[in-house]
Design brief:
The chain is α/β, with parallel strands linked by helices. The chain has one domain. Helix content is about 25%, strand content about 25%. The strands form 4 sheets. The protein has a 5-stranded mixed sheet. A two-stranded antiparallel ribbon has the order 1-2. β3 and β4 form a beta hairpin. α1 crosses α2. It is elongated.
């Protein structure tokens, strides 16, 4: 199997999430470059910037923690934090410049949250299949970061269709027009690509 096309599975609620890896599954053995700290600061910072811009797939889902669907949820991720935050102080400083902490607004449902850093230029947000359409719509239409900065989205085809219903139905040769529904895609100003997962 080609490592660029490798997939890994994570147990998550009642199903397995299948998330594509953007880098090889097994670490490649390399020699240690002992003189890295002796490089000029400008070169070290450039190297850290390249590391910080490595594309990631960031999985998001929400689970119920009470019977009240409008307030009783908790967002979570299985995605590990960016590696740049755990190398050294210098790399962490670059990481804090390149990444942004995902924040949830008061008006959003399921807003209990830990810490998740996203590089909106390079990262792809993966919405899990078991995410309800109500919560997915709430995330994509009420979260200011998602609305203004989300460029890459990976989502189940059925969930995407439920968030973006057709504007009209055809019955025979007649088009049945109905009130234009609110399509989620209209609220995502920066969205460049949508990929579908099963």
């Amino acid at each position: 199997m080609n490592p660029d096309h490798a997939l890994f599975f994570r147990y998550h609620r009642l199903q397995h999430c299948c998330i594509p890896l953007l880098s090889p599954a097994a670490p490649v053995e390399t020699e240690i470059f002992h003189f890295f700290p002796l490089l000029p600061p400008e070169i070290r910072l450039k190297i850290w910037q390249i590391v910080a811009q490595e594309p990631r797939v960031v999985e998001l889902s929400c689970v119920f923690v009470s019977s009240n669907q409008q307030t009783g949820g908790q967002w979570f991720t299985h995605s590990p934090p960016p590696v740049i935050f755990s190398i050294c102080c210098e790399s962490r400083a670059v990481g804090l410049y390149e990444y942004e902490l995902l924040k949830f607004e008061e008006k959003q449902i399921g807003r209990d949250w830990g810490t998740l850093y996203v590089n909106w230029e390079n990262d792809c947000i993966w919405l899990c299949n078991d995410l309800s359409a109500t919560w997915a719509k709430d995330l994509l239409t009420k979260n200011e970061q998602m609305k203004g900065k989300l460029k890459r989205l990976c989502i189940g085809r059925d969930l995407w269709k439920s968030l973006n219903p057709l504007m009209g139905l055809r019955q025979g040769n007649m088009a049945i027009l109905r009130t234009k529904p609110t399509n989620v895609v209209e609220s995502l100003a920066a969205l460049e690509s949508v990929q579908f997962h099963s």
